[in-house]
Amino acid sequence: MLPLPLAIPHAALPGLHLRRLQPQDAGPLRAIVTRPEVGRMLLAFPADWTLEQAQALIAKTAPRNTPPFRLAIDTGNGALIGTVGFVQGKADEIAYFLDPACQGQGIMRACLAGFIDMIFTQFACENLRAEVYHDNPASMGLLKALGFAQTGIYTGTCSAQRASAESLHVFDLPRAVWQAGR
């Protein structure tokens, strides 16, 4: 069972936590991922993604204790400001986004640190992977700060808000590296 809500230490936002997505998150979720500066960095959210599609995603992923799942980032007042997600498969991958109005405050770094701890504690994975588009240096810097190392670059699957396939940077974080850094 996932230990939710998961309190995330953050000086400016003492109520920051990760929780399950809720039906009332559909509108804010849709509003964030359909913004071009966010959606173009994500694989599955086209600019015309509907409220009904957001509701369906929440209904499908909210009750899950096993991957794939996506959790809400909540500042403590019930408002969704982003998400973090985990998928197990050929590679155990994380994905994340944050409302641009909340970026640059250390929120995602704190959330990912708590999320990574939870993943390595709750699931049998020895390595976490994240893929980042070439034009997202802030996300690459965040991953490096958390201990991820860049392990490759490839031209691949296009974001639903990009015109063609583009360069993606692959970052990996072995469990042993994470634990040694804690």
Automatic annotation (TrEMBL):
N-acetyltransferase domain location: 16-174
Pfam families: Acetyltransf_3
PROSITE patterns according to UniProt: GNAT
SUPFAM superfamilies: Acyl-CoA N-acyltransferases (Nat)
Keywords in alphabetical order: Acyltransferase, Transferase
Family: Belongs to the acetyltransferase family. RimJ subfamily.
The name this protein goes by in its record: GNAT family N-acetyltransferase
Source species of the chain: Roseinatronobacter alkalisoli
